[in-house]
Amino acid sequence: MRDVASAAGGAGGEAHDRVVCTGALVCAPMDTAATRDQRIAQLLIFVTPAMFTTNMVLARATADFIPPVALAELRWLGVVLLLLPFCGAELRRRRAALAREWRSLLILGSLGMGICGAGVYLAAATTTATNIGLLYSFSPIGIILLSRAMFGERLSVRQALGAALAFSGVLVIVLRGDPATLLHLRFTTGDLLILVAAMSWALYAVLLKRWPSAFSVNARLTAIAAAGVLVMLPFLAWELAVQGPPVFDTRTVAAVLTLIVVPGAGAYATYSYITKHLGPSRTGLTLYLSPIYTAVVAWLFLGEAFAAHHWIGAALVLPGLYLATHQPVPHTRPADEAR
Length: 339
Fold this sequence. Notes:
Elements: E1 2-10, E2 13-21, E3 27-29, H1 33-61, H2 68-93, H3 95-123, H4 129-136, H5 139-151, H6 157-174, H7 189-210, H8 217-243, H9 250-278, H10 280-284, H11 290-301, H12 308-325, H13 335-338
Antiparallel strand pairs: 1-2, 2-3
Helix pairs in contact: 1-4, 1-9, 1-11, 2-3, 2-8, 2-9, 3-7, 3-8, 4-7, 4-11, 5-7, 6-12
């Protein structure tokens, strides 16, 4: 028996897998750091959408008392201040990398923090939290199409089947279990803004994986968030001139702090981790859980209806998501079976 080492590269680092080969050259990967990282990423698939749901629900809950650009600016400035004590040394040490990556950081900040941040909050004034979750769930399709068009990335038959099953579950929820709803669909301005934000997120997710970075996940998130804060400053100045600043009472502070910690630092960091280890197309499929999570939370806290079609949709989305994201681990075959 002999050992063969194989290296698998990824954004932000390398992971070395050790493969055991028998005399008949039948090989199987052992439980390595790379395998462990993938398993953690698969677990986070079900946690990350719940954190993003907090953003969608709070977008609707705060629409009447916090202006959208101010809310996005406060959220991402808070994320920078929260992460900087942990990432500041790395950012200072790699100033040359910042100089090389500043253009990509500005683009990612504009897409992920600007359009996806302020856009969602602006849309929340004319749509519901449930609709935000529903329409945002179309971004996985955008991620798959962009990955295919820009980088030639393909899904396996198993993954495509899972994606189709999950998408059918989303359609059940969108159509409220009645296909005739297609004939009477009406979109508000907020709905259209959410679709723009969803496509912006799709491009952000693809570029996040495809553009290499010298930084760790959290340091890169800090730099992207800082870039987003800078990009939004002119829009914030206009909003302040027109609407004035938000009132910093207890509910405003509580909402902003929640947005900083949960869907800000938490969700974006875990999403970046999943993207690094599973790729953008498979990671994007996690957003199929958003309609389910958002509908439940909106039902609990905002009084929005939760009906039978939500349960049916969930019954389709969950197994579809499993098929699309789970990678079976090959088992070692005995040498004599290979003969």
